[in-house]
């Protein structure tokens, strides 16, 4: 399996925290998602998707969807990127960019699926979600807007064990 991180000698790309929400950083995050999309393995749906998550550390982790002939075992780009970041020790995130290609005429950009929204919510609802607009400029929303009344770890109450 190909490494989901950008091919850099000293690990994932890093963005200065002060620049994290800048238009340039948003474009760079969306570009990283676009590059990841080019590596997607989607022979069945022919619907390649790339994602890039930006951790609070400023590091960027990418992922692409990987399909399986056993359809239920397919994984989405957003979860691959997030799991790569978590495996690298990250636990706090501020943005995710998802590239499923330019929006079809008369359609909005493709947002993350419900399962990915829920997995992202495990790490908070404050995520900025960046999607490619028709002109290539990022279209921004929030995870909270995409997943109102989310089920979050705090909902487990006393049943939640210490992580």
Secondary structure elements and their pairing?
Blueprint: E1 13-14, H1 23-37, E2 50-55, E3 59-64, H2 77-87, E4 93-99, H3 114-121, E5 128-132, E6 138-142, H4 143-146
Parallel strand pairs: 4-5
Antiparallel strand pairs: 1-3, 2-3, 2-4, 5-6
Can you offer a commentary on this structure?
The protein is of the alpha+beta class. The protein has one domain: 3-Layer(aba) Sandwich (Cytidine Deaminase, domain 2). It is built from 4 helices and 6 strands, in the order E-H-E-E-H-E-H-E-E-H. The chain has a 6-stranded mixed β-sheet. Helix 3 (about 115-120) links the parallel strand 4 (about 95-100) and strand 5 (about 130). It starts with 12 loop residues before the first strand and ends in a 17-residue tail after the last helix. Mean pLDDT is about 90; it is low at about 1-10 and about 15-20.
Task: Summarize the model shown.
This protein has helices at 23-37, 77-87, 114-121, 143-146, and strands at residues 13-14, 50-55, 59-64, 93-99, 128-132, 138-142. By secondary structure, it is an alpha+beta fold.
């Amino acid at each position: 399996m190909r490494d989901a991180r950008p091919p850099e000698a000293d690990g994932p790309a890093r963005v200065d925290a002060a620049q994290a929400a800048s238009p340039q950083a948003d474009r760079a995050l969306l570009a990283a998602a676009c590059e990841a999309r080019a590596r997607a393995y989607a022979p069945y749906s022919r619907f390649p998707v790339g994602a890039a998550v930006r951790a609070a550390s400023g590091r960027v982790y990418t992922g692409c969807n990987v399909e399986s002939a056993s359809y239920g075992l397919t994984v989405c780009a957003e979860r691959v990127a997030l799991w790569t970041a978590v495996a690298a020790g990250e636990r706090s995130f501020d943005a995710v960019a998802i590239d499923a290609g330019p929006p079809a005429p008369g359609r909005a950009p493709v947002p993350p699926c419900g399962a990915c929204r829920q997995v992202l919510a495990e790490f908070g609802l404050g995520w900025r979600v960046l999607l490619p607009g028709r002109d290539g400029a990022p279209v921004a929303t929030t995870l909270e807007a995409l997943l109102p009344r989310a089920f979050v770890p705090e909902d487990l109450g006393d049943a939640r064990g210490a992580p």
